[in-house]
Amino acid sequence: MITLAEENYLKAILKLSKNSEDSVSTNAIAEELDTKASSVTDMIKKITDKQLVDYVPYRGVSLSKSGLKKAIEIVRKHRLWEVFLVTKLQFKWDEVHDIAEQLEHIKSQKLVDALDAYLGYPQHDPHGEPIPNKDGQFPKSFSKRLSELEKGSSGQVVGVSQDNQSFLQYLNSLNITLGASISVIQKIDFDDSLEITINNKSAHISNDVARNLLIKQK
Amino acid sequence: MITLAEENYLKAILKLSKNSEDSVSTNAIAEELDTKASSVTDMIKKITDKQLVDYVPYRGVSLSKSGLKKAIEIVRKHRLWEVFLVTKLQFKWDEVHDIAEQLEHIKSQKLVDALDAYLGYPQHDPHGEPIPNKDGQFPKSFSKRLSELEKGSSGQVVGVSQDNQSFLQYLNSLNITLGASISVIQKIDFDDSLEITINNKSAHISNDVARNLLIKQK
DNA sequence: TTATAAATTTAGACAAATCTAAAAATTAAA
DNA sequence: TTTAATTTTTAGATTTGTCTAAATTTATAA
What is the side-by-side strand order in the sheet with A154-160? Predict the structure, then answer.
């Protein structure tokens, strides 16, 4: 049986290892989970014993096959519940994260599948993040980061790659919502910030923000 | 902050104290939660310190005002999630208990209220149990136990007062469902069992079963 | 290449929730 | 009303997940 704390570690490791093979450092996990490095080492030993991760002392951890499967299941549940909260219960996209953090740990395969069907097998959550299917496969994405677009090019907002509340609220204040049209007017060299238009109204955003906005070009 | 274990103790105490004033014994709680009496004593001390219960050593516990409020909130959440699972996700009434046991601990007042509204403010769960409203008030019930009906009288099934899976499955096998019409044909004196008809088909049920079936007469 | 800084692990402790075994209090019975 | 049975509590231990402080390993820089 996998515990709630263990699930959170698996999720953190998945999030930190973009390429699911490469290993993640103890400190990175500690920062992600807002805990101490020594606690992380302790927990890594436990999940190593359960063969959920591969671990080389001082060299970091990576998800095993079964650990990756578990982690993807949690992400799937998190994102499906977010869709439920927004599309059925009328929550705003910046209000759902904390509740989904709880709901993602509910254990029932039948519930997840029924929820998926009820929601119409959505491919993306309200932040534009892809939802893995029952077999753990992610839908292919055709989006780019706004920071990667050339001057003069444009597209539509299809997601964010970070979903903390203050970031989402900042986006709201700029009228940057899912589906909004964005064009890159100017790229400022010395700090990589951007002059853009959002639905034809101009704005100035930092590279930090641009890096976390996912854009689909026509 | 109230922990998951504490919530389960409050719920058990509420369930065991029909009249919410009278006190509940240590052993009764241990049996209800399938744990040891010594563990119960330990936990009672913790929730006493938090003023969730009133406790007199060797004399049992009763819910305090705030403890009762908490316990009713948990029951409300449990029953609303059961309604969700049955009416929206097409679960059977005998499949929802274990999942609702998990969902009842999700913490978000906004979620509970939004769910309540989404479900149309239901007054009863799929087992016929009353759902307390936002203020903790239970809807009035006009049902009687089948075991209390006179020979010759009849009514409709509106609920059960026990919801373990094997009981509900037994009811299913007898075609006793919510809304089914039941008439009392004969009461057998020596064991208090009953000859009844269910939607005009005859059956014989024990007093044990009859005591747990809630009937509404016209 | 050796010294220093940074990252990681180990050792030992703590709180939560549980357990077993023994002691104390209450209830029931002779 | 004294004894026996039952219930409840206490004492001490265990597991999980965390912490601080110290030790060890790895990385960096002079």
Answer: A144-145, A213-216, A154-160, A181-187, A194-198, A201-205
B135 residue type, one letter: D
pLDDT band at A20 (very low <50, low <70, confident <90, very high): low
Cβ partners under 8 Å of residue B208, min gap 6: none
C-alpha to C-alpha distance for B177 and B126, rounded to whole angstroms? 10
Q: Are A100 and A115 contacting, i.e. CB atoms less than 8 angstroms apart?
A: no
Of B89, B98, B115, the CB nearest to A115: B89
- Judged by a CB distance cut-off of 8 A, whether residue B102 touches chain A is yes
User: How would residue B20 be classed by pLDDT, with cut points 50, 70 and 90?
Assistant: low
CB A138 within 8 A of CB A130: yes
**Does residue B108 belong to the interface with chain A, where contact is any CB pair within 8 Å?**
yes
Specify whether the backbone of B60 is left (phi greater than 0), alpha (psi in -120 to 50) or beta. Answer: left
Q: Establish how many alpha carbons lie within 13 A of residue B76's alpha carbon, considering only the half-sphere containing its beta carbon.
A: 23
- The C-alpha atoms of residue A72 and residue B51 are separated, in whole angstroms, by 41
pLDDT of residue A178: 86
Report all structural domains of chain B as residue ranges with CATH numbers, in order of start. 4-63 (1.10.10.10), 144-216 (2.30.30.90)
Check if residue B5 sits with its Cβ under 7 angstroms from strand C.
Answer: yes
Nearest to A54 by CA among A67, A36, A73: A67
Report CB contact under 8 Å: B108, A89: no
